[in-house]
């Protein structure tokens, strides 16, 4: 934190702005608590607008009419259906990024949470469940929208912010009184708000000699043996947090060779991408190299103008999971060169 976030700085600042010593004495515990936690001191909304660099009236609109600062759209899910996304406009997005960088990311989360966590990823999430005999996968329905604004207000209050400041910060992070899927703050906020859930499920797993991880709404348990009745116990814990288990996505695999966790195969001693995906990528690359990119696109009636970038992304994912795979390395280099030649 910068040197201007010390108790001495703030007392000097208040004196220079004509604040009486009596009021400064009242403010001192508030300032001390936030400074000790390495958090920015925020007195009221006008002060927050100066810190973020957003005009006061515009910030006021964001807080009281947040729906005017989002665009909404649906994206198709891999297994059918659509996922509703709300995307904040740049002005609101900058506020959310400020809150994340200056407040949220300074708050510790449970080590079982691998999503939206520095030095964690879908790869580390999957690696936790390598080569286990049993695998239990569960899902939370309507994950982000199930986390209400009052939880967020209480979080900021617990950090030491005044009620008004806590309400304003929470309002900048929420839409329709809940976490929106698409806000910059929602992913990490969900991890903070669910530390208690992760702790309970982690302790439960330890008592059964299991490994537990969570990647957003995906819960995964693995070990030598998982009794079927454990599912009901886990569901009851999820419900305790006002969340809803998506029972249609519960999968208990016993001695099954095909195990996929967050899109990664964990059947063997090392994480790999699924065999089916490997076959598909190798086949598509083969046809591009045999017939030429343009002929392949024409023959397959591919209309996506970013087809090559998409394929690059899939091979990059392959290397993320298997960084020493020579075929994936050479293929990615070939695709990058091909894209540059065709742009």
Description:
With 343 residues, the chain is of the alpha+beta class. 50% of the residues lie in helices and 13% in strands. The strands form three sheets. Strands 3, 4, 5, 6 and 7 form a five-stranded antiparallel β-sheet that branches. Strands 1-2 form a two-stranded antiparallel ribbon. Helix 7 (149-159) packs across helix 8.
* Total domain count: 3
Tell me the strand percentage band: 5-15%
- Assign the CATH superfamily of the largest domain: Reverse transcriptase/Diguanylate cyclase domain
Please outline the major beta sheet: 5 strands, antiparallel
Number of strands: 9
**CATH architectural category of the largest domain:** 2-Layer Sandwich
Helix proportion:
40-55%
Unreliably modeled segments: none
Give the H and E element order. HHHHEEHHEHHHHEEHEEEEHHHH
| Rg computed from alpha carbons, rounded to a whole number of angstroms | 24 Å
Alpha carbon gap, first and last residue: 44 Å
Lay out the secondary structure.
Elements: H1 7-16, H2 21-36, H3 45-52, H4 56-64, E1 70-76, E2 82-88, H5 90-102, H6 122-127, E3 134-141, H7 149-159, H8 163-173, H9 186-193, H10 195-207, E4 211-215, E5 218-223, H11 230-240, E6 244-245, E7 251-254, E8 260-261, E9 264-265, H12 275-291, H13 293-299, H14 307-321, H15 326-341
Antiparallel strand pairs: 1-2, 3-5, 3-6, 3-7, 4-5, 8-9
Helix pairs in contact: 1-2, 7-8, 12-13, 14-15
């Amino acid at each position: 934190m910068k040197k201007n976030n010390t108790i001495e700085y703030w007392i000097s600042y208040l004196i220079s702005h004509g604040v009486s010593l009596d009021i400064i004495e009242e403010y001192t515990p508030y300032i001390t608590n936030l400074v000790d936690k390495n958090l920015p001191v925020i007195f009221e909304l006008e002060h927050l607008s100066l810190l973020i660099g957003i005009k006061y009236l515009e910030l006021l609109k964001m807080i009281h009419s947040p729906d005017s600062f989002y665009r909404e759209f649906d994206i198709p899910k891999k297994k059918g259906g659509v996922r509703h996304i709300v995307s904040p406009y740049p002005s609101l997005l900058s506020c959310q990024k400020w809150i994340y960088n200056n407040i949220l990311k300074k708050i510790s989360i449970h080590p079982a949470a691998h999503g939206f966590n520095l030095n964690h990823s879908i790869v580390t999430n999957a690696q936790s469940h390598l080569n286990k005999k049993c695998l239990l996968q569960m899902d939370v329905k309507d994950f982000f929208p199930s986390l209400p604004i009052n939880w967020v207000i209480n979080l900021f209050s617990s950090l030491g912010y005044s009620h008004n400041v806590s309400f304003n910060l929470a309002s900048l992070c929420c839409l329709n009184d809940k976490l929106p899927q698409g806000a910059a703050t929602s992913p990490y906020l969900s991890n903070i708000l669910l530390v208690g859930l992760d702790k309970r499920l982690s302790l439960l797993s330890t008592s059964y000699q299991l490994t537990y991880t969570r990647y957003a709404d995906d819960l995964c348990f693995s070990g030598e043996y998982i009794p079927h009745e454990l599912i009901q116990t886990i569901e009851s814990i999820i419900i305790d947090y006002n969340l809803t288990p998506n029972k249609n996505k519960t999968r208990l695999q016993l001695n099954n060779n095909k195990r996929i966790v967050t899109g990664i195969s964990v059947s063997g001693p090392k994480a790999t991408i699924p065999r089916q995906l490997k076959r598909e990528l190798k086949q598509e690359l083969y046809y591009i190299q045999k017939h030429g990119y343009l002929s392949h696109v024409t023959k397959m009636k591919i209309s996506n103008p970013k087809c090559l970038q998409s394929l690059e992304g899939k091979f990059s994912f392959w290397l993320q999971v298997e960084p020493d795979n020579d075929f994936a390395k050479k293929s990615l280099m070939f695709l990058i060169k091909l894209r540059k030649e065709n742009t």
